[in-house]
């Protein structure tokens, strides 16, 4: 993602500014049809959601202007505030663990070993699989009496767990599914990063007698930093947005113990049909995502400058 | 001594790789095992791992009930149409954006990638009610464009930016229009990119659950929605449930195995993901 326009800068340098401007106008026609689609399916919903969030809307009952009432109600809604805390808890775990495991996996797959291609393909299968389908299998594995996971715990001498059936363990359990699901994406981004690293520093370090561990800490990690930040941003956004597996496995339960912002939003919109209120949730949720993304982009800028 | 150390390192490295790969594959193997066993074996504790003998009853049951074939056809129609339209609109757009270096347009695509899929649904849900399209596949196809178009545009921007500009410029100097330069010079060169974009858009459209769950009626469900409904209504029948889950995800898994090189290339470049 970073610096992707640089190739074009060089290539276009030969053309005169005037000619380029002439063409530029014509190139708009390539974008117009797609722009119309994006306008209709993506931009229109954004604008309409903002509008809706300022109205009291009930299905079939019409709408009345409500000003900021929805937002006032939202700030005072304990159920919503708790859903934010749960989302942040879920996100923190579902970012840190895949980042660590993804880095380890990328380092492993960067080395040559027999059957590497096959192992890598198997490793990325979870992220390509249909979330609903794998969520169903996880649900069966979590069964407290008949599930295969409790049998596994028993084999290694651990007490059985209630997994998603207890408010205390439900979020870590859902994080486990999320880690299984999305660590491959982190791995792929970092693998791409590792492949692009220069060889010279490693040769120099080898001559200077550095151990592989030292080379990792002082060469690989700093050079990989931009890719780590990209992976971190993508993972954070995806973890905040996690919906399919949580919905299929727990639907926010038991009680509201795994009700993240996204699940709360879904229930408000399509179970209770409070569409105006749900639109306000969308706006706040979006603001939270943008805020976290900005913080991470700011870290990225700092990493670059350092 | 050194040889021994090296051997120990190789063993532990191999073990490490195994620990990374084992969870990934075992969930799928367990899915397969559940789908091939009788209900009696599936609810046995300690669990039966190898189906003995494997039975196809669960798969037969899936096809006999629940209009599975109809939902499969729905899924095929939705994913193919949404992917086709995204290629039709997205490839030229990616080209235009790359040529103009229109960063603002790229930012819109990026924000679309950030926005939770659910947040598109409230406005579009109301819109489709007003137009009266509910009960057809059209709303589901349109919402799937929310996933497929950004994927295609994003991948194609990257691809077209990576192409050398000299060939197109030569064509333009020879009197070709920019459309001809795109159609006959740039697009053939970008074919690998189009392949990657098609595969990824298709997979993430196929896998999508939330849009069809909200918008689909009884007749217009896609496979993920149909399978989820099976869970809600038939909590205990693990065999048919696993068989259905396996049938839903098998096409994507096969596609991943066949096109793993393209998929890895596309995902590494863009970090795309749908919904």
Automatic annotation (TrEMBL), chain A:
Residue ranges of the ABC transmembrane type-1 domain?
84-296
Report the Pfam families cross-referenced here.
Answer: BPD_transp_1 (PF00528)
Tell me the Gene Ontology biological-process terms attached to this UniProt entry. transmembrane transport
The record's annotation in CDD domains points to: TM_PBP2 (cd06261)
Where does this chain mainly localize?
membrane
Q: Which Gene3D superfamilies does UniProt cross-reference here? A: MetI-like
**Signal peptide as annotated in the record:** none
One GO cellular component term noted in the UniProt record for this chain: plasma membrane
Entry keyword Nucleotide-binding: no
- Please provide the record's keywords in A-Z order: Membrane, Transmembrane, Transmembrane helix, Transport
Q: Does the keyword Transmembrane helix apply?
A: yes
Protein name per the record: ABC transporter permease
State the taxonomy lineage: Bacteria, Pseudomonadati, Pseudomonadota, Alphaproteobacteria, Acetobacterales
Automatic annotation (TrEMBL), chain B:
Q: Name one Pfam family in it.
A: BPD_transp_1
* One GO BP: transmembrane transport
| Membrane protein topology class | Multi-pass membrane protein
Q: Which UniProt keywords apply?
A: Cell membrane, Membrane, Transmembrane, Transmembrane helix, Transport
On whether Zinc is a keyword of this UniProt record, the answer is no
On whether Amino-acid biosynthesis is a keyword of this UniProt record, the answer is no
ABC transmembrane type-1 domain: which residues? Answer: 72-259
The UniProt entry, under InterPro entries, shows: BP-dep_ABC_trans_perm (IPR050901), MetI-like (IPR000515), MetI-like_sf (IPR035906)
Q: Which Gene3D superfamilies match?
A: MetI-like
Main location per the UniProt record:
membrane
Superkingdom of this protein's organism: Bacteria
- Similarity section: Belongs to the binding-protein-dependent transport system permease family.
Name of protein: ABC transporter permease
